[in-house]
């Protein structure tokens, strides 16, 4: 099967700019976890489709606005995340839960009417939640998050509702186009060479792919059952849990969110964030499952560290090869070939092409 994304589309600046307008502004974008917004004024800032956005708990509801003050254009929230009122640090303009200025120092100087203040409202964006994941959409449209996710909505809801303890957040800058990173995660063809001492040992294999809407899932058996051999002792404290699977599950929320789980005991959420046409921020969250007993044994602590080491090693290996691919696309004379094992890559490229026209 011929690849659909041409080599030039992995480094052409015009393609990168077009993706902001035609792709990322049209889809639902992951912007955080519900746990990021538990307290009033908790906020997270993000760059979505090239737009600076602040997502914040205002009066108990998660709202999203363009993170630019209507007075003199400063960014309002200047940290990546935190807790403070929605107030510009430049001149102190404060905004209410609807994004309308309500606290203006020396307000009589401006003498705004109620209608004039409403005209200075921050641009607002749609927010929706699936399980413990918070999503934002830049462009208005009729498609709800549930419609966008289709049949995988319930799987994402179930998986994310069972994210328990966050044991690692790994952030890596990779010198390659974001699509190279995504496509690398969607196939296991490279595993034997690149991950021979890491992911290969899990033994996940097979072509049990499911395709729905813009998204896809890989369900794979693994070499060792959850409670076989040494695993039985390690996994003993996780037996009383709500989410269980036999092996390994990996899904993509198109275009750039990957969620995986082994046995339903450990979870990984990877957020692949475009920085430029040849630079990507890779954020990997590792969780253990929710469990009734919140105490932690020595064995569990060792297990957690092994998960952290495993995931970091795998993604370090991926970083190296993805950067080599980026060097190569500038000089390739071919469109690329895809095998049966790379069906999810082809599906991703088909959906990408629809958005990019």
TrEMBL record:
**CDD domains, alphabetically?**
RHO_alpha_C, Rieske_RO_Alpha_N
The domain of life is Bacteria
Q: What is this protein called?
A: Phenylpropionate dioxygenase, large terminal subunit
Residue stretches making up the Rieske domain: 28-136
Which Pfam families does the entry link to?
Rieske, Ring_hydroxyl_A
**What is an example of a GO molecular function annotated in this UniProt entry?**
iron ion binding
Gene3D superfamilies recorded: Naphthalene 1,2-dioxygenase Alpha Subunit, Chain A, domain 1, Rieske [2Fe-2S] iron-sulphur domain
């Amino acid at each position: 099967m011929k690849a659909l994304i041409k080599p030039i589309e992995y480094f052409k600046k015009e393609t990168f700019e077009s993706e902001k307008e035609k792709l990322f502004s049209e889809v639902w974008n992951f912007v955080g976890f519900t746990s990021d917004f538990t307290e009033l004024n908790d906020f997270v800032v993000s760059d979505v489709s090239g737009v600076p956005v602040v997502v914040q708990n205002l009066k108990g509801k998660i709202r999203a606005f363009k993170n630019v003050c209507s007075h003199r254009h400063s960014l309002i929230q200047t940290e990546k995340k935190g807790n403070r009122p929605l107030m510009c640090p430049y001149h102190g303009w404060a905004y209410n839960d609807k994004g309308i200025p309500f606290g203006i120092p020396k307000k009589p100087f401006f003498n705004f009417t109620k209608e004039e203040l409403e005209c200075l409202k921050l641009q607002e964006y749609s927010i929706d939640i699936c399980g413990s994941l918070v999503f934002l959409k830049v462009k208005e449209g009729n498609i709800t998050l549930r419609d966008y996710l289709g049949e995988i909505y319930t799987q994402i809801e179930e998986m994310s509702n069972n994210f328990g303890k966050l044991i690692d957040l790994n952030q890596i800058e990779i010198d390659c186009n974001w699509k190279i990173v995504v496509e690398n995660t969607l196939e296991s063809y490279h595993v034997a060479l690149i991950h021979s001492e890491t992911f290969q040992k899990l033994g996940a294999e097979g072509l049990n792919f499911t395709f729905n809407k813009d998204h896809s899932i890989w369900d794979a058996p693994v070499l060792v059952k959850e409670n076989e051999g040494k695993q039985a002792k390690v996994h003993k404290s996780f037996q009383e849990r709500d989410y269980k699977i036999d092996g390994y599950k990996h899904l993509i929320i198109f275009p750039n969110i990957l969620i995986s789980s082994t046995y339903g005991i450990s979870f990984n959420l990877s957020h692949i964030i475009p920085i430029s046409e040849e630079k990507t921020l890779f954020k990997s969250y590792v969780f253990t499952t929710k469990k009734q007993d919140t105490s932690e044994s020595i064995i569990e602590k060792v297990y957690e560290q092994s998960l952290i080491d495993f995931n970091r090693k795998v993604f370090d290996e991926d970083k190296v090869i993805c950067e080599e691919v980026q060097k190569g696309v500038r000089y390739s004379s071919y469109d690329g070939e895809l095998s049966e094992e790379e069906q999810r890559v082809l599906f991703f490229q088909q959906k990408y092409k629809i958005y990019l026209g």
